[in-house]
Amino acid sequence: MSKIFGCYGSSKAMAVMENAIDDGATFVVCGDEELSKIVSQDLETISQDKVLFISDTETLPYDLENPHSQIRSMRNQALYRLSTYKGGKTIVVCSMYTFSKKVASSNFWIEKAKKIKVGDKVKPADLEALMMEYAYNKEELDLSEPGEYVRNSDVFDIYSTGDTKPVRLFIRDGLVRDIHYIDLETNRNVSEAEELLLLPSYEFNTDEKSLRRARSFIRSNCSGDPENDPVFYELKQSQHANGLEYFLPEICEETVKVSDLLPDGTGIAFCLIEPDLESYWHTANRRYKEVTKEMGRVVPRPEELWITNEEIEKTVSIHPCTEIFEEPLDSNYAIPSGASRQPNLSATSNMLDKIVESVDGVVITASSKDRVNQIDQILDLIDIENPKHGSPRNICGGFRGVFVLEGALSVGFIRET
């Protein structure tokens, strides 16, 4: 395992690019959700590789609130793409909490995903039955968010969780005649769509058989009246219940680690950015005690829903792994406060002059070409000859030397051990 220290600002993303494997998936697991979003955005800006971001559900463990429909849609698309991975260089970004949470296996996504193209045989009644099976909400007039559909005779407006935009399907004589993207504001056709990728509204089964297993689990483990349990009560009333995602072992035939969604034989590597193996597990266990002892709810144990610290360490240990830290290896190399976003060029020149010979690389990104020119002048003053230049989409070289890039303001000093 290699470690890189002193990665400030966008240099974290550049360190990932340098250590990502060429044919396979590199999992970039960040200490928290905010950091994972920043790194993902940086990678999408400066990398030409495929970047896949898996969002957190943004709910507390065992919460009785469903993730927002947009978040569910983003997660569904990411998990489906992992399950149907066909090779090539891919960078997968998520938080440690997201990586640790078990998900339905790739078989779930492969079996549930339905692709509908122009010319396909589709009966309107069968399509609506599929919408109901996938727990889509039927609206009267307009769509507003993923997981909804509107039916007007043989015309369907569908906002699939498998797409970023809603579509309109025209069915005539049992055949799909036309598929168009529609504008949510005007409700008019915008452009033709090649196909509709229909994914379930939720990332788990919502059929009656699966929900019956969830009710049975609560009834069997409840010391009192199961009707008092909020999930049990809601499941008796409808097809879904708030908090149902925390009954994954009961409603899915198989649960796996996120990295296990990839086909067998896929190359895997890890980049851990500011890794924190303790906080997510502590939070899950604390919440389990709260909901079971203080609220009296029946829920699966944390080890059934999250992989343990030991399992994460074991998974990481059998693959190439790089740990990336913002903290410098030596306090003498620390950047002045605030430098990661708005570096003081004078301070930067003094620091570069002191440490450029003792670290493996320096990456400087500037907000404009004028700033790049200023940095070049500083480098010339401290006798740094021929710094390599690149652009956000054309980064050259490795981490040996000095690199000047146009992009977000940041400075990163890299030292590998």
Query: How many E strands?
Result: 20
Shape: globular
Per DSSP, the total helix count is 14
Rg measurement, Å: 25 Å
pLDDT < 50 runs, ≥5 residues: 331-345, 391-400, 406-410, 413-417
Q: Structural class of the helices, strands and pairings?
A: alpha/beta
What fraction of residues sit in β-strands? Answer: 15-25%
Question: What kind of sheet is the major sheet?
Answer: 10 strands, mixed
Distance between the termini: 9 Å
Strand order of the largest sheet: 3-4-2-15-16-1-20-17-19-18
Helix content: 25-40%
Mean pLDDT reading: 82
Care to describe what's here?
With 417 residues, the chain is of the alpha/beta class. Helix content is 33%, strand content 23%. The strands form 4 sheets. It has a 10-stranded mixed sheet with strand order 3-4-2-15-16-1-20-17-19-18, with helices on both faces. The longest helix has 16 residues, at 279-294.
Please give a quick description of this structure.
By secondary structure, the chain is α/β, with parallel strands linked by helices. The chain has helices spanning 11-19, 33-46, 69-83, 96-100, 106-112, 124-133, 208-221, 230-237, 248-251, 279-294, 302-305, 309-317, 345-355, 369-381, and strands at residues 2-5, 25-30, 50-53, 90-95, 103-104, 114-117, 137-138, 148-152, 155-159, 167-172, 175-182, 189-192, 195-198, 255-256, 268-273, 321-324, 361-366, 388-390, 401-406, 410-416. Helix 1 (11-19) crosses helix 2 and helix 3 packs across helix 5.
